[in-house]
Amino acid sequence: MVITLSIIIVLLLIVIYYLYTQNRRPAHWPSEEVSKKVVEEHEEEQMEDQTFESIYDVLKNKKVTKSDVIHIINISLGRRELSNANTNFSSLNKAKPVWWFDILPEKFSEDLHLILGKEEGFIWITIPKDAVTDVNKVFRVRDDNGRVQLVISSEPGVYYLRDIASGASGFNFEQYVEKIFD
Q1: Which of 88, 92, 96, 83 is nearest to 148 (CA)?
Q2: How far apart (Å, rounded) are the C-alpha atoms in residues 105 and 94?
Q3: Which one of 40, 68, 86, 112 has the minimum C-beta count within 10 Å?
Q4: C-beta atoms surrounding 87 within 10 Å
Q5: 168, 138 Cβ separation under 8 angstroms
Q6: pLDDT digit string (tens) for 118-171?
Q7: pLDDT tens digits for the chain (182 residues)?
Q8: Helix/strand/coil (H, E, C) string of the chain?
Q9: How far from 76 is each of 26, 34, 50, 70, 124, CA to CA, in Å?
Q10: Rounded to an integer, what distance in angstroms lies between the CA atom of residue 148 and that of residue 110?
Q11: CB–CB of 55/47 below 8 Å?
């Protein structure tokens, strides 16, 4: 009898603790789903309030980051198309006039956005998901980590915006330039 009563008390305490942890918010607080929706709507309102020109003018004289660029492009599009997951960013290499990327091969199965940061501004490239069917034939895949290594030339001339990585096919990214932001 004492053991049964002890078990019942322990079970009640577990249920109370569970209910307490699940309902720690006051009753007037919105659920997590509602909170996320409110935040997203607020971000979209802010996005609508900001014009592309106002954002870009602020960033014009500063070195842009990946998140800056994603924000600028999404504002210019009027929708959220670029994200951290589908966008890769590279600044111009200081030692050699190229942009370097190491990208997981799976990323080419969806639209892939490449941002090439320049001294001032950047180049936005979109590689459609069907543009590269076999990354192993088109690009250099590193033996050590299995990633696609892109070395894109920034030098004007024949090799401008071409993959010049050792063993690569010289893939021309110029045809996939969405926009140049100067």
Answers
A1: 88
A2: 26
A3: 40
A4: 21
A5: yes
A6: 988 899 999 999 899 899 999 999 999 999 999 999 999 999 999 999 887 899
A7: 767 777 888 777 887 777 766 655 444 444 455 445 544 554 555 555 555 555 555 556 666 789 989 999 999 898 999 999 999 999 999 999 999 999 999 999 999 999 999 988 899 999 999 899 899 999 999 999 999 999 999 999 999 999 999 887 899 999 999 999 88
A8: CHHHHHHHHHHHHHHHHHHHHHCCCCCCCCCHHHHHHHHHHHHHHHHHHCCHHHHHHHHCCCCCCHHHHHHHHHHHHCCCCCCCCCEEEEECCCCCCEEEEEECHHHHHCCEEEEEECCCCEEEEEECCCCCCCHHHHCEECCCCCCEEEEEECCCCCCCCEECCCCCCCCECHHHEEEEEC
A9: 40, 28, 10, 10, 12
A10: 15
A11: no
Residue with tokens 């936005």: 124
pTM: 0.68
Determine the length of the chain. 182
8 Å CB contact between 154 and 98? yes
Q: In which residue are the tokens 């709507």 written?
A: 41
Residue keyed to tokens 């990585």: 165
